[in-house]
Amino acid sequence: MTTKVNTELSYDNKIILAPMVRVCTLPMRLLALDYGADIVYTEELIDWKFLKCIRRENDVLGTIDYLDKSDGSVVFRTCHKEKNKVIVQLGTCDTQRALKYSSGGSKEIEVYEDIIKFKNECGCSSVMIARAAEGNCSIFRQRGLLDLEDVIVDYLKYAVDYDNSPSNTKYCIQNMLKELQETSRGKKFLECQTLEQIWY
Fold this sequence. Notes:
Elements: E1 15-17, H1 26-34, E2 39-41, E3 45-46, H2 47-51, E4 53-58, E5 63-68, E6 74-79, E7 86-87, E8 90-91, H3 112-122, E9 127-129, H4 131-135, H5 148-161, H6 166-177, H7 184-190, H8 195-199
Parallel strand pairs: 1-2, 1-9, 2-7, 3-8
Antiparallel strand pairs: 4-5, 5-6
């Protein structure tokens, strides 16, 4: 006797990390799930680039990696923690390959309660969060926002554990810091070039 596995993802009453270029890599997606997001999107992956990839199981990191055959760079990385919760967003200019997708959100969302308010006012069952999550991923926590420094430390743990590229890690932290980049500590951070420098 075989058991049928239901792989259909429901968007009903969900809080979603919206797709953001260079932000929605594995560390940010895992952090959003840790903080309470129900579904997470990848950054947009261009179809022709994704089609050139080879799939590799990375036993060291415990991930599935899709590597660009031309240079070995990671195009997409996932792990068991986000199974059945991640949406891979593929972009295309070929109508034969195109899939319909939509997103929504509001610049008015700054804390978890704003998500609920937005859902109620719009009569929608689910809300997809982008910019607020980019600035402080703990927006998904029902118990309130965490201190930005704690969020950055949690993000860095994932970035190191899953070997995220230093340039992408730096980009995501810059988006969290925003105007704090102009402080002496922020300027010191901007000089960092490696994950080790960023961490310390």
